[in-house]
Fold:
Amino acid sequence: MSAADLLSTWQRHLADNRRRSPHTVRAYVAVAARLVGANALEDWPAVARIEAHHLRNFLAARRAEGLGNASTARELSACKAFITFARQQSGDPDPAAPRLRGPRIKKGLPRPVTPDEAINLADHVDDLAAEDWIGARDRAVLLLLYGSGLRIAEALSLTGRDAAAAGEVLQVTGKGGKQRVVPVLPITRAAIAEYVRGCPWPLTPAEPLFRGAKGGPLSPGMVQRAMAQARRALGLPDTATPHALRHSFATHLLSAGADLRSLQELLGHASLGSTQIYTRVDAASLLENYRKAHPRG
Structure:
């Protein structure tokens, strides 16, 4: 086996087995390539033997190249995922990655997560879960929050009937019992289908779609904890919460040209005034980008 074989297998696993986004696959394979090259690794047992001090030296070299704290935290997370996979490939009875704390991330101003960050968060809750079906569940929930603009309570109120009926749109019940129709992205439909296939509990039409580890309804706290773990691994600020994904849905649609009335309907706001906050968020983002890009900003 060669280093190229390791990377090819890792890429296929991420894309085919873990169903990661192309962006995540590219980023994880690039990190793995750097780790393999820096340590002259040529088989899975060699990767599996990587310990905390090896990672510390690798990341120190990357920091010397100018890598910032947030990027270092993401690189560490990708390294751990690669080593865990290597230990599984080697038949290690304890495949957990080496324990190593990432750098502290300076807290920034509250802001929507970017599209790439939203997908990375969804992918990471899957990677970090104790069981495959739990990871698929949490990934599907986060993609509903970002891709369809749902409140967390709305996502967790979905039933088995909703999963069976989910196509390009989904009917949800929001505050005050108000119903609305929201779009469902292909990546979200695929994530829900993957969760349904792996869920060990019977998903009957009238029962909650998203289940806890013991079969009861999934609680918002479990989703919040899973996302908190993922955002720390990615070096994102504390403002990257499940509800921030709904804000990001609104902000990104407004940036792309959606009108306020349509956005009001998609978000289920009772008044247009609740929706207008996103015009201020978008203006702040526009000004920040202008200052970064303009030669005299």
Notes: The CA atoms of residues 33 and 218 lie 38 Å apart. The beta strands are 169-173, 179-183.
